[in-house]
């Protein structure tokens, strides 16, 4: 039977990866919703109200699953990682408590008004609720990433007690909050979320354009999504670079794994693509010689600490996995910049929406930020191993001592079944909402007759109550 | 030890967590109870009204669970790890039930097919009931104490939890939430559904009073450590007396059809029962049935004074905010439920 450690790790990885499909979408969509509803209030154009309402329905679906799968994460700290909970509770707990009371309560409280409040409150109050929900989801990310960053680069604490009784005690709250990696990682995570949300908006809009349905609102949606996405994709280059810098300074073993650099102290290359053979300590692929040396020290010939400089039990085991996930993320990041810049250029030339092939690419491009977000987190978390709190607490020591393997197998099977069902239902309902499209209020005179007819057809087939 | 208002920091944090759990019981209690009653409504429109009565608020109510969990994690990390890993399987089922409940509410009305809606109605009722029963079961076991050894490791198995007392507490919790939910629904409905609910609320109150009497008696007879504190401070007996008066007031107001007042009293009884539990526990938070020396007190488990001070400050700032927008949301959706195009 597999060990409790590996089972608990698989369960945590599975449940967090599944959960993480949703929060980035909520955060990114939240920003897009604020822009859409803001446009409605500013222009008074009913079309913006229609698309806001349409996206709120999709937001509600995504948010609901995000909450349900998020509670699982909080509880798993205690159920599977009791020693970890006791070790970090004093420090980590205050960030988690802040998340609950300042962020989660805000978004869930105002969500009711966002979804059900259209006819109950005035436009201004509704817009305010939309902003609160969007802000709440961003605040959530802040506290969760702060807590996770503390695990990467712990500061503002002392260790009290020894052996099994040891635990981290907070000494300086703001030093804990602004630990060396939190600002860089937080900006990287948030912008990754903006990309996820804005690419979803563009994907749906592009699909309508390809199918020649709801073309006017689809173009409006696409422009909003593209604006958010283009700014985010460029900014991500900067935050990504900053994140790599903190890794090189504080987690050299992770950095070495990310580029498959083994030499304990030699010039380090940067790979475009590659493959790591852990046994021989060799990495093959297309590379920029001395690239990593340049990135970390500004010189192509500067030595960089490699994996062999660390004892076997103090460096990540899955080197190739960290290498591949990291490079996948970077490759997608670059692709997103190219895609959004191309789209902006064509939009400026007024040719964007005629390019069906590009629209088709955007329909599918929604997967790219999702994959990059997942891959980035895998690189960050697997690269931190064998530590759960870097340099302080090993993952293997962090378990619940009295939980048995068969209990974890039971819950793992349960989550696998439930999440599979949940994902199928999510895709089914998402597809249905997209097929149905925004409700159209025929108020634009410039619409062609043909298009109006289609709108009337849409109106005659309302969504089931 | 540092004190604020004459109370030391771990005690204050114990009170904060108690307050959060009470908030959760009062708020999510009524929507869980409404879920347990769901299949008593036969007509499609009645079910939709019942669902939309909790629609805008259930998610906000559930937040209190998240905050209470976070507060326990932050304030008493040892207890958080011990309780959650001890009740591993019950909590896993609880989490799965929470997921099913969320998607039942969310997905039910998205398709018109009768089988689809029936499936989610059953899932909604079953998950709401399972959540309540599991909460009650865990509570019942915590009242009695659990077999944990000197290293705080649980020495029992899954069957340890299914003892008669804990099962009784589970059903008492169910009866309380059903009553609380029925009173809430009766306030939110009109016409025939209202008439049906007035009958239902009566039956719920009888079910609850029966459970209340049984569990009070059992606690007095079988759980001596719960009444120890009361014997030492006889004035505390005012509380059980208050509980009885509150229960009688629920009944009286239901009979008089003053449902809002009844709802206030059914909220109060949730709070009073939890206060009785807290007094019985204090200063312990997990009682070991193996040896009293293995019990975990708030002082064994508390985070550092600095950490507790930071979090008390957060609670002092955050609680008024949370309460004010909770009130704002409930005020926005006040009155009887009307279905519209944005409804479930």
From TrEMBL, chain A:
The chain crosses the membrane at residues 20-42, 54-75, 95-118, 125-146, 186-208, 220-238, 326-348, 357-380, 408-430. Its main location: membrane. Keywords: Cell inner membrane, Cell membrane, Electron transport, Heme, Iron, Membrane, Metal-binding, Transmembrane, Transmembrane helix, Transport. Belongs to the cytochrome ubiquinol oxidase subunit 1 family. It comes from the Bacteria. It holds the Pfam family Cyt_bd_oxida_I. The lineage of its organism: Bacteria, Pseudomonadati, Bacteroidota, Chitinophagia, Chitinophagales. One of its GO terms (molecular function) is electron transfer activity. It is found in: Cell inner membrane. GO terms for biological process: aerobic electron transport chain. The keyword Transmembrane helix applies. InterPro entries: Cyt-d_ubiquinol_oxidase_su_1. The keyword Iron applies. Residues 445-465 are annotated as: Disordered. GO terms for cellular component: cytochrome complex; plasma membrane. It is a multi-pass membrane protein. This is Cytochrome ubiquinol oxidase subunit I.
TrEMBL record, chain B:
InterPro entries: Cyt-d_oxidase_su2 (IPR003317). The keyword Heme applies. Coiled coil: none annotated. It comes from the Bacteria. Keywords: Cell membrane, Electron transport, Heme, Iron, Membrane, Metal-binding, Transmembrane, Transmembrane helix, Transport. Signal peptide: none annotated. One of its GO terms (molecular function) is electron transfer activity. The chain crosses the membrane at residues 12-41, 86-103, 124-146, 166-186, 207-227, 233-250, 262-282, 310-333. One of its GO terms (cellular component) is plasma membrane. It is found in: Cell membrane. Its main location: membrane. Pfam families: Cyt_bd_oxida_II. It is a multi-pass membrane protein. GO terms for biological process: aerobic electron transport chain. Belongs to the cytochrome ubiquinol oxidase subunit 2 family. This is Cytochrome d ubiquinol oxidase subunit II. The lineage of its organism: Bacteria, Pseudomonadati, Bacteroidota, Chitinophagia, Chitinophagales.
């Amino acid at each position: 039977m597999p060990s409790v450690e590996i089972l608990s790790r698989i369960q945590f990885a599975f449940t967090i990866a599944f959960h993480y499909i949703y929060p980035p979408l909520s955060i990114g969509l939240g920003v897009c919703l604020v822009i859409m509803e803001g446009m409605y209030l500013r222009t008074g154009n009913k079309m913006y109200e229609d698309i806001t309402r349409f996206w709120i329905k999709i937001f509600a679906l995504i948010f609901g699953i995000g909450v349900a799968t998020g509670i699982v994460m909080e509880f798993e700290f205690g159920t599977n990682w009791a020693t970890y909970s006791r070790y970090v509770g004093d420090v980590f707990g205050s960030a988690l408590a802040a998340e609950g009371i300042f962020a989660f309560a805000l978004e869930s409280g105002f969500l009711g008004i966002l979804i059900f409040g259209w006819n109950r409150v005035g436009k201004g109050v509704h817009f305010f609720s939309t902003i609160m929900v969007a802000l709440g989801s961003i605040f959530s990310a802040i506290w969760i990433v702060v807590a996770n960053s503390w695990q990467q680069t712990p500061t503002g604490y002392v260790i009290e007690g020894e052996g099994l009784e040891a635990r981290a005690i907070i000494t300086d709250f703001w030093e804990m909050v602004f630990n060396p990696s939190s600002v860089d990682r937080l900006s990287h995570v948030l912008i990754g979320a903006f990309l996820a949300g804005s690419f979803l908006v563009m994907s749906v809009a592009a699909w309508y354009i390809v199918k020649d349905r709801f073309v006017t609102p689809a173009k409006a949606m696409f422009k909003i999504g593209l604006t958010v996405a283009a700014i985010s994709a460029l900014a991500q280059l900067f935050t990504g670079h900053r994140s790599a810098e903190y890794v090189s300074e504080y987690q050299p073993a992770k950095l070495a794994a990310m580029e498959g650099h083994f030499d304990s102290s030699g010039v380090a290359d940067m790979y475009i693509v590659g493959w790591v053979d852990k046994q021989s300590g060799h990495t093959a692929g297309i590379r920029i010689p001395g690239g990593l040396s340049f990135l970390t020290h500004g010189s192509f010939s500067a030595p960089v600490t490699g994996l062999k400089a660390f004892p076997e039990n103090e460096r990540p085991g899955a080197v190739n996995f960290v290498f591949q996930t990291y490079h996948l993320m970077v490759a997608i990041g670059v692709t997103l910049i190219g895609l959004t810049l191309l789209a902006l250029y064509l939009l400026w030339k007024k040719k964007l929406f005629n390019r069906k092939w590009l629209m088709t690419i955007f329909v599918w491009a929604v997967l790219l930020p999702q994959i990059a977000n997942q891959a980035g987190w895998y690189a960050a978390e697997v690269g931190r191993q064998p530590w759960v709190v870097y340099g302080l607490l090993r993952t293997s020591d962090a378990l619940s001592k009295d939980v048995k393997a068969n209990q974890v197998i039971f819950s793992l099977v349960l989550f696998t079944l439930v999440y599979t069902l949940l994902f199928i239902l999510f895709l089914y309902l998402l597809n249905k909402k997209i097929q149905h499209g925004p409700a159209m209020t025929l108020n634009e005179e410039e619409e062609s007759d043909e298009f109006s007819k289609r709108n009337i057809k849409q109106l005659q087939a309302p969504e089931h109550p | 030890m540092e004190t604020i208002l004459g109370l030391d920091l771990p005690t204050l944090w114990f009170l904060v967590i108690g307050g959060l759990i009470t908030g959760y019981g009062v708020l999510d209690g009524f929507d869980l109870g409404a879920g347990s009653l769901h299949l008593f409504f036969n007509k499609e429109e009645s079910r939709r009204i019942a669902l939309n009565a909790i629609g805008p608020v259930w998610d906000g109510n559930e937040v209190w669970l998240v905050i209470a969990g976070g507060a326990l994690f932050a304030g008493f990390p040892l207890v958080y790890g011990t309780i959650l890993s001890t009740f591993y399987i019950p909590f896993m089922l609880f989490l799965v039930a929470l997921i099913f409940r969320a998607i039942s509410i969310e997905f039910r009305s998205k398709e018109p097919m009768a089988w689809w809606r029936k499936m989610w109605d059953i899932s909604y009722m079953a998950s709401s009931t399972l959540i309540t029963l599991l909460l009650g079961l865990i509570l019942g076991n915590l009242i009695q104490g659990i077999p944990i050894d000197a290293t705080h490791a649980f020495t029992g198995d899954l069957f340890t939890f299914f003892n008669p007392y804990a099962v009784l507490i589970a059903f008492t919790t169910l009866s309380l939430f059903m009553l609380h939910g029925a009173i809430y629904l009766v306030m939110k409905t009109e016409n025939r559904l209202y008439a049906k609910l007035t009958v239902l609320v009566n039956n719920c109150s009888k079910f609850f009073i029966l459970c209340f009497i049984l569990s009070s008696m059992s606690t007095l007879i079988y759980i001596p450590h719960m009444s120890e504190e009361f014997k030492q401070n006889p004035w505390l007996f005012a509380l059980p007396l208050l509980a009885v008066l509150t229960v009688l007031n629920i009944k009286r107001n239901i009979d008089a059809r003053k449902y809002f007042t009844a709802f206030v009293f059914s909220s109060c009884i949730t709070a009073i029962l939890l206060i009785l539990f807290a007094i019985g526990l204090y200063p312990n938070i997990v009682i070991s049935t193996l040896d009293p020396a293995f019990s975990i007190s708030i002082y064994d488990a508390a985070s550092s004074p600095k950490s507790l001070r930071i979090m008390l400050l957060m609670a002092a700032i955050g609680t008024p905010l949370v309460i004010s927008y909770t009130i704002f949301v409930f005020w926005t959706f006040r009155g009887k439920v009307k279905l519209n195009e944005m409804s479930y």
